[in-house]
């Protein structure tokens, strides 16, 4: 079990940490929640049947840990909104020009700010699909949803993000246009 756990840790630790960090926006809390994920993995690994990939199984556990955490919070929606600080977000790219990097940073910062307008379900789908690059089926498996629900939630999240970004863009530059693909 130790070697299996070590492999899981090496392969997926950063992905789990990032997922939980994007959910709670607090480094120490995300680290604590990742530890809770691993505790649950150790307790449940003997029941893992391999019907899904280890990665989707781990994200499913991480999703449940995050939901459990928020349920324990008094006024968790307000707490979550207060914790959404995207000013520390950075982009690491090997080749782009400095002005491209600055533009990407601003666009990503804007997207993260606009995530506040999404529901918790929409945030989870956006994070899993676009930050962790899971497929629709992997996302559905991780969230224990149908693929149809993932697609619908993703569509609504993108629509919400696009609307909010356009509204913000009009406030800054009335003639500008931001495109989300």
Topology summary:
Layout: H1 2-24, H2 27-44, H3 54-72, H4 76-83, H5 98-114, H6 120-131, H7 136-143, H8 147-172
Helix pairs in contact: 1-2, 1-3, 2-3, 3-7, 6-8, 7-8
Care to describe what's here?
The protein is mainly α. About 70% of the residues lie in helices and about 0% in strands. The protein has helices at about 1-25, 25-45, 55-70, 75-85, 100-115, 120-130, 135-145, 145-170. The longest helix is centred in the last third of the chain and has 26 residues, at about 145-170. It starts with a helix and ends in a 9-residue tail after the last helix.
Can I get a quick summary?
By secondary structure, the protein is mostly helical.
State the order of secondary-structure elements, H for helix, E for strand: HHHHHHHH
Find the structural class using helix and strand composition.
mainly alpha
Total E-strand runs: 0
Low-confidence segments, given as residue ranges, are 84-93
Q: From the alpha-carbon coordinates, what is the Rg to the nearest angstrom?
A: 18 Å
Looking at this protein, list some descriptive labels.
181 residues; mainly alpha; 8 helices; 72% helix; 0% strand
